[in-house]
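Record S1 RNA-binding domain-containing protein, 289 aa.
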Amino acid sequence: MKPGTFETLRVDEQVDYGYFLTDGEKRVLLHNNEVTEEIQVGDEIEVFFLVDSTDRLSATMKKPFITEGEYGWTDVVDVRDEYGAFINIGLAKDALVGKDNLPFLREVWPEPGDKLYCTLKVTNNGRFFVRLATEEIIKPLLKNADRELFNKEISGTVYRMIVAGSFIITDEGYKGFIHSTQRTREPRLGERVTGRVIDVKEDGTVNISLLPRKHEALSDDAEKIFAYMKERGGAMPYSDKSDAEDIKERFSLSKGAFKRAIGHLMKAGKVYQEGGWTYEKKEEDVPKG
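=>
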Protein backbone atom coordinates (compact mmCIF):
# COMPACT_ATOMS: atom_id res chain seq x y z
CA MET A 1 0.00 0.00 0.00
CA LYS A 2 1.75 3.09 -1.29
CA PRO A 3 0.39 6.65 -1.75
CA GLY A 4 -0.27 7.44 -5.40
CA THR A 5 -1.04 3.86 -6.46
CA PHE A 6 -4.13 1.74 -7.07
CA GLU A 7 -4.87 -1.63 -5.51
CA THR A 8 -7.84 -3.98 -5.22
CA LEU A 9 -8.74 -4.68 -1.56
CA ARG A 10 -11.49 -6.52 0.29
CA VAL A 11 -13.98 -4.66 2.48
CA ASP A 12 -13.17 -6.08 5.92
CA GLU A 13 -15.32 -4.08 8.35
CA GLN A 14 -17.87 -1.27 8.36
CA VAL A 15 -17.72 1.41 11.09
CA ASP A 16 -19.65 4.65 11.67
CA TYR A 17 -17.14 6.79 9.79
CA GLY A 18 -16.33 4.42 6.93
CA TYR A 19 -14.88 1.03 6.06
CA PHE A 20 -11.69 -0.82 6.81
CA LEU A 21 -10.15 -2.51 3.79
CA THR A 22 -7.57 -5.28 3.80
CA ASP A 23 -5.11 -7.01 1.49
CA GLY A 24 -5.03 -9.98 3.86
CA GLU A 25 -2.23 -8.58 5.99
CA LYS A 26 -2.70 -4.83 6.45
CA ARG A 27 -5.80 -2.68 6.89
CA VAL A 28 -6.50 0.82 5.66
CA LEU A 29 -9.44 3.20 6.22
CA LEU A 30 -11.87 4.20 3.48
CA HIS A 31 -13.73 7.21 4.91
CA ASN A 32 -17.41 7.67 4.10
CA ASN A 33 -16.50 10.85 2.18
CA GLU A 34 -14.33 8.78 -0.16
CA VAL A 35 -17.01 6.21 -1.08
CA THR A 36 -18.43 6.70 -4.58
CA GLU A 37 -20.84 3.75 -4.80
CA GLU A 38 -22.65 1.35 -2.48
CA ILE A 39 -20.37 -1.30 -0.98
CA GLN A 40 -20.62 -3.94 1.74
CA VAL A 41 -18.38 -6.20 3.77
CA GLY A 42 -16.79 -8.87 1.58
CA ASP A 43 -16.75 -6.80 -1.62
CA GLU A 44 -13.54 -6.44 -3.62
CA ILE A 45 -13.01 -2.85 -4.68
CA GLU A 46 -10.27 -0.86 -6.39
CA VAL A 47 -9.00 2.12 -4.41
CA PHE A 48 -6.36 4.81 -4.70
CA PHE A 49 -4.01 5.46 -1.78
CA LEU A 50 -3.25 8.87 -0.31
CA VAL A 51 -2.17 10.42 2.97
CA ASP A 52 -4.91 12.09 5.04
CA SER A 53 -4.72 15.29 7.12
CA THR A 54 -3.19 13.36 10.03
CA ASP A 55 -0.44 11.89 7.81
CA ARG A 56 -1.97 8.41 7.91
CA LEU A 57 -2.36 6.24 4.83
CA SER A 58 -5.97 6.16 3.65
CA ALA A 59 -7.94 5.02 0.63
CA THR A 60 -10.40 6.60 -1.79
CA MET A 61 -12.68 5.20 -4.46
CA LYS A 62 -12.31 8.47 -6.40
CA LYS A 63 -10.14 8.33 -9.50
CA PRO A 64 -7.56 11.12 -9.82
CA PHE A 65 -7.39 12.98 -13.13
CA ILE A 66 -3.66 12.28 -13.37
CA THR A 67 -1.32 9.69 -11.83
CA GLU A 68 2.45 9.22 -11.82
CA GLY A 69 3.63 8.92 -15.41
CA GLU A 70 0.20 9.75 -16.88
CA TYR A 71 -0.36 13.29 -18.13
CA GLY A 72 -3.52 15.32 -18.56
CA TRP A 73 -4.97 18.84 -18.55
CA THR A 74 -5.86 19.98 -15.04
CA ASP A 75 -7.35 23.20 -13.65
CA VAL A 76 -5.51 25.68 -11.48
CA VAL A 77 -7.67 26.34 -8.40
CA ASP A 78 -5.46 28.55 -6.22
CA VAL A 79 -2.18 30.45 -6.40
CA ARG A 80 -0.06 31.52 -3.42
CA ASP A 81 3.12 33.54 -3.65
CA GLU A 82 4.90 31.53 -0.97
CA TYR A 83 4.07 28.12 -2.44
CA GLY A 84 3.06 28.18 -6.11
CA ALA A 85 -0.08 26.97 -7.91
CA PHE A 86 -2.52 24.39 -6.58
CA ILE A 87 -4.07 22.03 -9.13
CA ASN A 88 -7.36 20.14 -9.01
CA ILE A 89 -6.54 16.46 -9.53
CA GLY A 90 -10.02 15.15 -8.72
CA LEU A 91 -9.35 14.31 -5.06
CA ALA A 92 -10.22 16.02 -1.79
CA LYS A 93 -6.73 17.53 -1.62
CA ASP A 94 -5.19 19.53 -4.44
CA ALA A 95 -1.66 18.98 -5.72
CA LEU A 96 1.01 21.68 -5.88
CA VAL A 97 3.19 23.04 -8.66
CA GLY A 98 6.02 24.51 -6.59
CA LYS A 99 7.00 28.10 -7.27
CA ASP A 100 10.47 26.95 -8.36
CA ASN A 101 8.77 25.18 -11.29
CA LEU A 102 6.80 28.25 -12.34
CA PRO A 103 8.03 31.17 -14.48
CA PHE A 104 10.48 33.59 -12.88
CA LEU A 105 8.09 36.52 -13.42
CA ARG A 106 5.19 36.39 -10.96
CA GLU A 107 2.82 38.18 -13.34
CA VAL A 108 2.87 35.27 -15.79
CA TRP A 109 2.12 32.59 -13.21
CA PRO A 110 -1.16 30.78 -13.95
CA GLU A 111 -4.35 32.03 -12.34
CA PRO A 112 -7.40 30.06 -11.12
CA GLY A 113 -9.21 28.71 -14.17
CA ASP A 114 -6.06 28.33 -16.27
CA LYS A 115 -5.06 24.81 -17.38
CA LEU A 116 -1.75 22.97 -17.16
CA TYR A 117 -0.67 19.76 -18.90
CA CYS A 118 1.05 17.78 -16.17
CA THR A 119 1.53 14.55 -14.26
CA LEU A 120 1.46 13.59 -10.58
CA LYS A 121 4.63 13.33 -8.52
CA VAL A 122 4.34 11.56 -5.14
CA THR A 123 7.07 12.13 -2.56
CA ASN A 124 8.37 9.47 -0.15
CA ASN A 125 6.15 10.85 2.62
CA GLY A 126 3.05 10.75 0.42
CA ARG A 127 2.78 14.42 -0.56
CA PHE A 128 1.25 15.10 -3.99
CA PHE A 129 3.05 17.50 -6.32
CA VAL A 130 2.57 18.25 -9.99
CA ARG A 131 5.24 18.02 -12.68
CA LEU A 132 4.71 20.07 -15.84
CA ALA A 133 5.04 18.35 -19.20
CA THR A 134 8.33 18.79 -21.04
CA GLU A 135 8.67 19.35 -24.77
CA GLU A 136 9.36 15.62 -25.20
CA ILE A 137 6.04 14.77 -23.53
CA ILE A 138 4.13 17.35 -25.59
CA LYS A 139 5.59 16.28 -28.95
CA PRO A 140 3.54 13.07 -29.45
CA LEU A 141 0.32 15.08 -28.96
CA LEU A 142 1.01 17.39 -31.88
CA LYS A 143 -0.34 17.37 -35.42
CA ASN A 144 0.99 19.12 -38.51
CA ALA A 145 -0.85 22.26 -39.53
CA ASP A 146 -2.01 22.84 -43.10
CA ARG A 147 -1.23 25.97 -45.14
CA GLU A 148 -4.95 26.67 -45.34
CA LEU A 149 -4.76 27.89 -41.73
CA PHE A 150 -2.87 31.00 -42.81
CA ASN A 151 -4.60 34.18 -41.61
CA LYS A 152 -7.26 32.16 -39.76
CA GLU A 153 -8.20 32.67 -36.12
CA ILE A 154 -6.97 29.97 -33.76
CA SER A 155 -7.13 29.29 -30.01
CA GLY A 156 -4.95 27.34 -27.63
CA THR A 157 -3.29 27.09 -24.22
CA VAL A 158 0.17 28.33 -23.25
CA TYR A 159 2.31 25.41 -22.08
CA ARG A 160 5.87 26.75 -22.27
CA MET A 161 7.58 30.13 -22.13
CA ILE A 162 11.00 31.38 -23.24
CA VAL A 163 12.51 34.86 -23.48
CA ALA A 164 11.58 35.17 -27.18
CA GLY A 165 7.93 34.25 -26.71
CA SER A 166 5.29 31.70 -25.74
CA PHE A 167 4.42 28.22 -27.03
CA ILE A 168 0.82 27.01 -27.16
CA ILE A 169 -1.04 23.84 -28.03
CA THR A 170 -4.04 24.79 -30.13
CA ASP A 171 -7.45 23.19 -29.71
CA GLU A 172 -6.76 21.19 -32.87
CA GLY A 173 -3.41 19.90 -31.58
CA TYR A 174 -1.03 22.19 -33.48
CA LYS A 175 2.08 23.67 -31.91
CA GLY A 176 2.01 27.44 -32.05
CA PHE A 177 4.55 30.12 -31.21
CA ILE A 178 3.76 33.70 -30.23
CA HIS A 179 6.80 35.93 -30.63
CA SER A 180 7.19 38.72 -28.08
CA THR A 181 6.65 41.28 -30.88
CA GLN A 182 3.24 39.75 -31.68
CA ARG A 183 1.51 40.56 -28.39
CA THR A 184 0.68 43.57 -26.25
CA ARG A 185 1.41 41.65 -23.03
CA GLU A 186 2.97 38.31 -22.17
CA PRO A 187 0.26 35.65 -21.66
CA ARG A 188 0.29 33.55 -18.50
CA LEU A 189 1.41 29.94 -18.32
CA GLY A 190 -1.79 27.92 -18.73
CA GLU A 191 -3.76 30.83 -20.18
CA ARG A 192 -6.11 30.24 -23.10
CA VAL A 193 -5.45 32.71 -25.91
CA THR A 194 -6.92 33.41 -29.33
CA GLY A 195 -4.91 34.87 -32.18
CA ARG A 196 -4.29 34.87 -35.91
CA VAL A 197 -2.04 32.49 -37.84
CA ILE A 198 0.64 34.60 -39.54
CA ASP A 199 2.80 31.72 -40.79
CA VAL A 200 2.53 27.97 -41.29
CA LYS A 201 6.04 26.54 -41.17
CA GLU A 202 7.42 23.55 -43.07
CA ASP A 203 7.61 21.48 -39.88
CA GLY A 204 3.83 21.84 -39.39
CA THR A 205 4.00 24.40 -36.58
CA VAL A 206 2.36 27.82 -36.76
CA ASN A 207 3.35 31.34 -35.80
CA ILE A 208 0.56 33.29 -34.15
CA SER A 209 -0.10 36.96 -33.57
CA LEU A 210 -2.24 38.24 -30.70
CA LEU A 211 -2.19 41.76 -32.14
CA PRO A 212 -5.39 43.09 -33.74
CA ARG A 213 -5.54 43.31 -37.50
CA LYS A 214 -4.69 46.78 -38.74
CA HIS A 215 -8.27 47.62 -39.61
CA GLU A 216 -9.37 46.49 -36.12
CA ALA A 217 -6.77 48.44 -34.15
CA LEU A 218 -7.93 51.71 -32.64
CA SER A 219 -6.12 54.88 -33.67
CA ASP A 220 -4.14 56.83 -31.09
CA ASP A 221 -6.84 59.54 -31.10
CA ALA A 222 -9.56 56.95 -30.50
CA GLU A 223 -7.55 55.38 -27.68
CA LYS A 224 -7.10 58.80 -26.06
CA ILE A 225 -10.81 59.59 -26.23
CA PHE A 226 -11.82 56.15 -24.97
CA ALA A 227 -9.37 56.39 -22.06
CA TYR A 228 -10.88 59.78 -21.12
CA MET A 229 -14.36 58.21 -21.14
CA LYS A 230 -13.16 55.35 -18.95
CA GLU A 231 -11.83 57.87 -16.40
CA ARG A 232 -15.30 59.47 -16.31
CA GLY A 233 -17.13 56.19 -15.75
CA GLY A 234 -17.89 55.53 -19.42
CA ALA A 235 -19.56 58.79 -20.48
CA MET A 236 -18.51 62.25 -21.69
CA PRO A 237 -20.42 65.42 -22.66
CA TYR A 238 -18.88 65.50 -26.15
CA SER A 239 -20.13 64.13 -29.46
CA ASP A 240 -19.57 64.77 -33.15
CA LYS A 241 -22.02 67.70 -32.73
CA SER A 242 -19.84 69.41 -30.10
CA ASP A 243 -18.23 72.80 -30.69
CA ALA A 244 -14.83 72.67 -32.36
CA GLU A 245 -13.25 74.96 -29.74
CA ASP A 246 -14.49 72.76 -26.88
CA ILE A 247 -13.04 69.70 -28.60
CA LYS A 248 -9.72 71.48 -29.22
CA GLU A 249 -9.48 72.60 -25.59
CA ARG A 250 -10.25 69.15 -24.13
CA PHE A 251 -8.49 66.80 -26.57
CA SER A 252 -6.09 68.99 -28.56
CA LEU A 253 -7.76 67.64 -31.71
CA SER A 254 -9.44 69.29 -34.66
CA LYS A 255 -13.14 68.58 -34.99
CA GLY A 256 -12.42 66.50 -38.11
CA ALA A 257 -9.90 64.33 -36.27
CA PHE A 258 -12.30 64.02 -33.34
CA LYS A 259 -15.15 62.88 -35.59
CA ARG A 260 -12.92 60.31 -37.28
CA ALA A 261 -11.88 58.92 -33.89
CA ILE A 262 -15.48 58.78 -32.65
CA GLY A 263 -16.50 57.08 -35.90
CA HIS A 264 -13.76 54.52 -35.35
CA LEU A 265 -15.00 53.82 -31.81
CA MET A 266 -18.60 53.50 -33.00
CA LYS A 267 -17.61 51.16 -35.84
CA ALA A 268 -15.70 49.02 -33.33
CA GLY A 269 -18.88 48.78 -31.24
CA LYS A 270 -17.31 50.51 -28.24
CA VAL A 271 -19.46 53.66 -27.96
CA TYR A 272 -22.80 55.20 -28.88
CA GLN A 273 -24.11 58.79 -28.86
CA GLU A 274 -27.26 60.18 -27.33
CA GLY A 275 -28.39 63.71 -26.46
CA GLY A 276 -25.03 65.31 -27.25
CA TRP A 277 -23.16 62.82 -25.03
CA THR A 278 -21.01 59.81 -25.92
CA TYR A 279 -21.37 56.64 -23.85
CA GLU A 280 -19.37 53.45 -23.59
CA LYS A 281 -21.35 50.53 -25.03
CA LYS A 282 -21.45 47.83 -22.37
CA GLU A 283 -22.74 44.28 -22.59
CA GLU A 284 -26.11 45.19 -21.08
CA ASP A 285 -26.60 47.80 -23.85
CA VAL A 286 -26.50 45.12 -26.56
CA PRO A 287 -29.99 43.79 -27.45
CA LYS A 288 -30.35 40.09 -26.76
CA GLY A 289 -31.31 37.96 -29.79
